[in-house]
Design a protein that fits this description.
Largest sheet: 7 strands, antiparallel
Bound molecules: flavin mononucleotide
CATH architecture of the largest domain: 3-Layer(aba) Sandwich
CATH superfamily of the largest domain: NADH Oxidase
Structural class: alpha+beta
Number of helices: 15
């Protein structure tokens, strides 16, 4: 949606992927209505263009059935990661909005909300415009918690989940409350949202400041510092565009070892965007709430690094070992017998305490967690591509066995897996 700029006349546009073009299907813009639907998110006050990411559920569900509900958010998270980088190359910054009145936004875009639904909005701030150099604002709002799960017919779970993660237009996030980071919640509490169930939740916790916290420190196993030199992306990010264009999911690894330096560089780029500010990257890209996500690394074949499963402490920049053995076979099994799991040098698991996430964001937490995990996955993909490594996401795994086999704490549900390994010379990635 454009309010009208010198590059893009006012209107509603559909991005046509095949021809990489915009098709204007409405020559006016309902910006004020969009602001209402987004509960007056501050980024919409001065930006002129907003990208709306929508999902057509059936495009994933025909293959993955109910599990498609995860995949569409993981895929969209990858997309957010790519758009963040593309925006950087064009001197824009993305302000991510995940808390909005779903039905209103869908109506504005003529989406039916069932077959296709908006899932994230990205306000595009033009960094050459002084009034668009905006501070990061909150990107997630809570939806209600549905404590009673009704029986769901086979094949209906996806739409049931989506319906239960909606935010209503009258959810109680009023204009004044949205503008003030100190007074977000009173009417949300009246409306019975997740926030109401967490008495200590203050508005500050819903603002943009959601630092990565080191959640686990185990009294056993080795600790390895991952501090390293940042990846170099060329003068004025000259290598970034090429990396975006050439990134592909690797289909087979050689089984050769990764170097420690490569693994540490990938972790650095993914979890420490602030190390890349001087190269021109966004040093604080928007996520929904990274404090909810933990990272575990199963090391199978990394030079000079003992095999085992490690917790990655992002603040301390350390790998803390929680399991000691070799487990190519276990990883092969956990990844549904996919060879990518067996032959990877390292496998990264993004996890979350679902109970804690739901207490904070209601059932909508499920969306935010998967989009954030996908976004992290895209950074891993790009860093791996830049280092000429193979990489592939894996969303198909045996959820119930992961924790036990890798000693990941029981409260952590695995959201997404990224495998990293050496690729054969002939593969593009
Ligand atoms: C969220 C997500 C989950 C994926 N899961 C798997 C998987 O379980 N197995 C697999 O072989 N590839 C998996 N992939 C890789 C996709 O097959 C690949 O991204 C897709 O075919 C598009 O190709 P590209 O990444 O090279 O553009 C996954 C990718 C994403 C983004």
């Amino acid at each position: 949606m454009s309010r009208g700029t010198s590059l893009l006349p006012a209107g509603l546009y559909n991005y046509q992927v095949r021809s990489h073009s915009l098709w204007r299907f409405w020559d006016d813009h309902p910006w004020p209505a969009l602001q209402t639907a987004c509960f007056w998110h501050p980024a919409l006050e001065s930006t002129q263009i907003v990208l709306v990411v929508s999902t057509v559920f059936q495009r994933s569900a025909w293959r993955y059935q109910d599990r498609a509900y995860r995949r569409v958010f993981l895929d969209s998270g990858h997309l957010l990661g790519n758009l963040e980088m593309a925006a950087t190359l064009c001197d824009y910054r993305l302000h991510v909005i995940g808390g909005f009145a779903d039905k209103l936004v869908n109506q504005l875009l003529y989406l039916d909300g069932k077959e296709e639904s908006a899932i994230a909005l990205l306000a595009l701030a033009d960094l050459f415009q002084v009034d668009q150099n905006l501070p990061a604002a909150r990107s997630a709002l809570p939806s209600p918690i549905h404590a009673k799960i009704l029986p769901v017919a086979e094949g209906e779970l996806l739409s049931y989940l989506h319906e239960n993660t909606l935010i209503a237009a009258d959810a109680g996030f009023g204009q004044q409350q949205q503008k003030s980071s100190d007074a977000l919640l009173p009417s949300a509490i009246q409306a019975g949202t997740a926030a109401a169930l967490e008495p200590k939740l203050t508005a500050k916790k819903l603002t943009a400041e959601k630092p990565l916290a080191d959640k686990y420190n185990f009294p056993f196993g080795i600790t390895v510092s991952t501090k390293t030199q940042p990846i170099f992306w060329g003068d004025q990010l000259s290598e970034l565009e090429n990396t975006l264009l050439t990134r592909r999911s690797t289909r087979r690894y050689t089984g050769a070892p990764l170097s420690q330096a490569d693994l540490f560089a990938l972790l650095d780029f993914t979890y420490h965007p602030e190390h890349y500010r001087l190269q021109g990257f966004d040093s604080q890209p928007d996520y929904f709430d990274l404090s909810l996500i933990a990272t575990f690394v199963a090391v199978s074949n990394v030079d000079a690094l003992e095999s085992g499963c490690y917790y990655y402490a992002p603040q301390a920049q350390e790998l803390r070992q929680i399991r000691f053995n070799q487990f190519h076979k276990d990883l092969h099994f956990l990844c549904l017998g996919q060879d990518l799991g067996r032959d990877a040098g390292a496998v990264i698991f993004h996890t979350a305490d679902l109970g804690g996430a739901i207490a904070k964001y209601g059932d909508r937490a499920y969306r935010y967690l998967h989009m954030d995990a996908g976004h992290l996955g895209q950074r891993l993909n790009l860093a791996a591509t830049r280092r000429n490594l193979g990489v592939s996401g894996i969303a198909g795994f045996f959820d119930d066995q992961v924790n036990e086999l890798l000693s990941i704490p029981d409260e952590e549900a695995v959201l997404y897996i990224t495998t990293i390994g050496q690729k054969t010379a002939r593969q593009p990635n």
